Amino acid sequence: MAVYFDHRIEAPENSDVPIMLTWHSTIPLLAVASSSPATGGNVDLYLQQGEYVESCHVERPHQPAVLRWHPLKPVLAQGWENGEVVLLTHPSGDQTVLPSAHTASITLLEWSSFGSRLVTGDEMGVLAVWKLDARGKLQGNHLVKHEYNKPLTCCIFKPTSPGIDVAKLARASVSGDESALDMFSWKGAPMKMGPQEGLAFFVSTADGKVHSMDEHCKTNALLSVEGSIKKLFYLEKRDALAVVTDTLMLSQYTLGPEGGAHEFLKVKLSSKSGQNVDIVWTVNSLLITATGEQIVRLWDLERDDNDILSLDETLGFDRGEMINCVSYCAAKATLAAGTSHGRIAMWRMVVQPSSSRADTKALWKLQTPTEIEGNVTQLQWGSSQNLLAANNSKTALILCEHVMSAHFSQQVAAVQLTPTQLSISHFTTGVHLALQSDMHIKGVCVTKDSVTVWNGKVVTVYELLGTVLRNTGSFPCDSHVVAVHGENLYTVEPNRVQIRTPQGTVKQLLTFSKSEGNPALLNVCQSYLVVGTDTAHIRVFDLSRRDAKAHCSAKNLSDQIANLGALRTVKCNANGSQVSILISQVNGRPDHKVYFYDVEMDTVTHFDFFIGRPSSGVSQSEESEKQPFQGTEFSGRCPVSHFWDESEPRLFVCETVPVGSDSSSNSHLDMVDVSVVTLFCTQEHGLLLQDCYPKPLGLQALLALDVPYYYFSCKPGERDPGSTEASSLQTQPAAGAPGQSPHMVSRRALRDFVGLENCEKSTRDAMLNFSFYLTIGDMDEAFKSIKLIKSKAVWENMARMCVKTRQLDVARVCLGNMGNARAAKALREAEAEPEQEAQVAMLAIQLGMLEDAEKLYKSCQRYDLLNTFYQASGQWQQALETAEVHDRIHLRTTYYSYAKYLESMGDKTLALAYYEKSDTHRVEVPRMLQDDTSSLEIYVNKMKDKNIYKWWAQYLESQSDMDSALDFYDLAQDYLSLVRVHCYMGNIQEASQIANDTGDRAASYHLARHYEGHDDIKQAVHFYTRAQAYNNAIRLCKENGLDDQLMNLALLSNPEDMMEAACYYEEKGTHMDRAVALYHKAGYVSKALELAFATEQFAALELIAADLNESSDPALLARCSDFFISHSQYEKSVELLVAAKKYHQALELCLTQNLTITEELAERMTVTDAKDLSEEARKELLEKIADCCMRQGNYHLATKKYTQAGSKLKAMRALLKSGDTEKIIFFANVCRQKELFIMAANYLQSLDWRQNPEILKTIIGFYTKGRAPELLAGFYEACAQVEIDDYQNYEKALDALSEAFKCLSKSKDSSGGQQEVRLADLQHKITLIKKFVQIRRLYAEDADEAVRLCEALLDEPKLNPAVRVGDAFGFLVEHHCQQGNFQVAYHKLEELQKLLPSQNVKYYISQASLEALQKELGIPMERTGHSNSVKEEDEVEEDLNMS
To answer: Distance between CA 696 and CA 477 in Å, rounded?
Structure first.
């Protein structure tokens, strides 16, 4: 909570009335313009506390018109009525008069964003633009001058787009962004760093026109509105221009790239006409107006929303008080308004936390007003957030914000109400006092006997005597902080602490070295004083003796705490063993840790509220480590204040706010989400969480901790809803105090002391020890500390404590000592729940801690139990919401329970709605309304529900209203009831029609019984049949000899009825075919067959045989089979033999009658059960089946059966006969047997393997896997011969023969020397082919040598077929033709012809060579190609051989 100290400006004597004031945007300088009709006007400058700056005084015989500060430099632009413009510089007081450009009163002055341009305008419409340097000095004459011929009213500079963020650009460049990297290069235009100054601006005139002027000072008419323009605003997010006229007409325009403006919104702002209007525009697009009414109007132009703020008389405002002016501080989110009665109202914007950012709406909270004299006509926030200037028509005042002082000690609390007033509460005596001081109070310190106040210049001490405050001393002192212990006062000055008497006499000095710094913080707890210095040193002094003694040496916290900027507050505990410290970091932000300095151990530990855990160096017991530090409700927070208990040295309390809040500006005081965290701090166990709970609503801030209470300051103007002791405090105003002041302090009992606030000290200590030992998990010590306590209230309080600590074993002991059997039973039953939180929640319910129970159920997500809890506690709306969102499985049950509750409360209308939601209305609503038949009838007709119709019809029937009952039975479509009532009334025809039309079985059955009772057998059978009560219909048919109907009914009925009907027919001896059919249909096949054979019903036998299968009697199957054989129905006979498992007979029948064995039949003959056949017999049977399939040409099925019989060779032979290459290859690979591989390879050789490389590879692979190198060698030889004969490719032939030689070399000789001969032959072939290949390769290098070698090769014995003679001669002929030796070539050709008289030599010689021979020698082709007559058949044969 803050107050404002008002400082009147130290204006010179005989100064005039101020007419305007303005703050500098960055420097605490206030400019005040005043005027007098007689002497003219003047402008003066003042500092932040109103100090007059004598050197900066400007006086003219004219009135000042406009003031405007330079945005960066201490230069003030002043416009006067005579058109003069003066630049005043602080602190030198230099005055620069701009060259005369205006002759009329100045109406506007506007600086550009960096102050390099100044725009001036007057009432005649003359506008001038001036250029200034970086120091704010004028550079020459005006840049441009325009005349608009109308008074100029407003001017705003257009904001520019922000410059490039160099840091982000650098990060992007490092991460590989090439475009960012290019921007750092020196090529092209220089990069624009940081924000750029906008030099374009807009100016408006009194006739409603707006002109734009670009950075080159070229003007252009932009838009026009009706009336004089009062304000111009620029909406950066929308890139739009807003215009407000003197009639408060708001227009918004979008600006085009070519300079045009398009209106997209026009609205009339509400206002009181004929009054001066104060309009404020904020950076977040908020338009605020004060028009001399009792309200402030707000328009949010971004969200198109509006709001109204009004004054509250309960906070001290008067009825009819008008608001004249407004000013908004964006940094503080505070709106200030000046009123006609000399008050300044302030609204603080509070953003309510919401799950959706889009839905958040700002709420404005009115603060306690600050009162000044006169009529406030102008307000403006200063460069500092804490400065506010006000003009009350008499003088100017500077209001400086000060956080209200408060202090608690020794059961006395003091809270500042106004700058000069304190509220003092003495909790021991119950006395409440109001202290009115004659100075602005900046600090207060209380003890049980005294109240000390100071303002930084004077310290005043008041003695507290019962209900009287007596001034005992006042002395000048510049100390900004004071502490009190007994009769001693402790003040600070550079490098020392002064110990003074209440009259100001210095008794002792506590000196600090230069390195230790200047004392800045003081705190006293019991008999110990802790001092914090501006260099982050702390010292603790013992005050228990006459003179203060050092309790420990100075501790430099900078060595222990990283990133330490300055100490914020220091506090010590009751025995001086621990000091808690809050710090600010180097960047000025508050740290989210609380540091603890252990005086005896000389160590510093901390508790980090951001992660919700203590420092890792703190020792903890096993039980304490189980505490749920992580994820608790105080993680992600920051401490703002801290206190030690005044008598218990272990107990520490801290007030925390979320990290995102600006705690340095005390805005946390208005936040809802403030938590109070209590810790135990000891050397042995470190920091232990004792409790954490949200600060109660209506309370301002934590003041102190004094077991058994927390003490809070209250919010002004708000009554504490949980306070009980405030009414018991007597208010006694001190001398000179203006009436009664509100109670400003409230206390709340600690969790462990609820209900024990007035207990004696021994009980209080026992409870503290119990809480401590319970926190560390030492159950033995916890029980020892309370074993002597007999009070049930204490045991109940400890049970409540167990809810927080979740110690159920301790809770059972507490419940036993309380004698609460019901709670103990409920807790024992709750142990069946798997979640500990659910068990603890039941304990909380039994102890009346309903909020805790609710939180526990939510934390373990047991929404079913939470739903039950809400219902039991009467919170039906919460129960319904829980069921609808989380516990939908119990949604209808919840609706039903709520409906029962509403019915019990007499709210039948709402109960009816929830009965419908629970889907129980068909029974419950008629029951509920049965006493109100008229309402029930209306409900029945309204709902149109069949069940309700039926209920109502039954009710009418019970009332003997049969006709109405029939109508409602008809609406309910209850045909049984309709038929029943019609039978009762004797309307048999209508009943029969209903039963026939609807086919309702129940109705038909009832009607059949009725007909049977009246001996109408035909109708009875008919309706029994429609009711599907066939046994009754059969009974009547048998009794009455209706044999024809009996057969049809028996076939429709179940097997038992069929059996009975068949027996009936058999006994009667007639219709034996019907008996056989019924026996068969009923499943008695053997009986049906016997009867069929006995009566020779062959047609029936065929029908019965169709249903026979393996499960039938084998003898019966054989008998049927013989029957079909005798009638030449062999296929049916085979199926029956297979079903009878007479497989050999079935096979013989298939062979003799040449029946095709299908795959299905073969599978049925394949025995899988070892019980039917032995393994050998099974294989024999399978082979017989396969043999039969082979004979029939079904090779695939034969392969399958051979495989199942284990005869893979026969299976492969069958597969080879099928010619299915793919399956042959697959079968060989699966079986992996040598013989099968060889068989498959031999088969594949019969295929066209020359054209299919895959088959070639498969052949080689199969011979290799079959370990048949001789066969593989033979295959390679065949490959080589193919290469020679077909392709003349001796290289590949050589490779193939080499592979054949390798394979043959690996095989064992089992042929008696034949292998050696074969190897020699292969080697001879390889040698010859190798020579021929070398001759071909040598020809390119040495043709003659190649020819010689080729002729020598022809002399080799057994040259053919290794190297074909034709290929050798062809080589020579080709050579001689190329050399031009055609005669030699011809002789070689003739020689070849002689050697191969039966072959066509053209095959060995190219066509080009033959044509060359014919051309050169003139020999016809016929002669060269055919010297001897060869028959055409031989040529054809040769061609075939070559192919």
So the answer is: 38
The distance from CA 523 to its chain's CA centroid, rounded to whole angstroms, is 47
Structure-block tokens of residue 1300 = 């054949």
Phi, psi at residue 426, to the nearest 5°?
Answer: -110, 105
Tell me the per-residue pLDDT of 1080-1099, one tens digit each, with 9 for 90 and over. Answer: 667 666 666 666 666 656 55
Contact 1199, 1206 (CB under 8 A): no
Q: What is the CA radius of gyration of the chain?
A: 57
| SS3 category, 108 | strand
Give the range among 224-233, 277-286, 729-738, 1172-1181 with minimum mean pLDDT. Answer: 729-738
DSSP 3-state assignment of 660?
coil
Contacts of 476 (CB under 8 A, 6+ apart): 457, 458, 459, 504
The contacts of residue 643 (CB under 8 Å, 6+ apart) are 571, 652, 653, 654, 702, 703, 704, 705
Outline where 1053-1142 has alpha helix (H): 1055-1068, 1072-1082, 1085-1095, 1098-1105, 1114-1126, 1130-1139
| Side-chain half-sphere CA neighbours of 682 within 13 A | 16
Nearest to 509 by CA among 526, 494, 524, 521: 494
- Cα gap 25→71, rounded to integer Å: 6
- The vertex-449 CA angle with 443 and 453, nearest 5°, equals 15
Q: Which residue has the tokens 């006062």?
A: 489
Q: What is the dihedral of CA 12, 17, 21, 27, to 10 degrees?
A: 10
Give the confidence band of 22 by pLDDT, cuts at 50, 70, 90: very high
Tokens representing residue 739 in the block: 């009436």
On the CB side of 1207, CA atoms within 13 Å amount to 21
At residue 355 the predicted structure's pLDDT band, cuts being 50, 70 and 90, is very low
Whole-structure pTM value: 0.54
Give the Cα separation of 160 and 692 in Å (integer): 49
- Report how many helices (DSSP H) and strands (DSSP E) the chain contains, helices first: 46, 63
Q: Which helix (H) or strand (E) holds 7?
A: strand 2-8
Q: How confident is the model at residue 420 (pLDDT cuts 50, 70, 90)?
A: confident
Q: Are 687 and 701 in contact (CB under 8 A)?
A: no
**Helix spans in 1192-1248 (H):** 1195-1204, 1208-1218, 1221-1231, 1234-1245
Q: At what angle do helices 1001-1013 and 975-985 cross, to 10 degrees?
A: 20
Question: What span, in angstroms and rounded, lies between the C-alpha atoms of 1063 and 1071?
Answer: 11
Q: Are 548 and 497 in contact (CB under 8 A)?
A: no
| Tens digits of residue pLDDT in 219-239 | 888 899 988 898 898 888 778
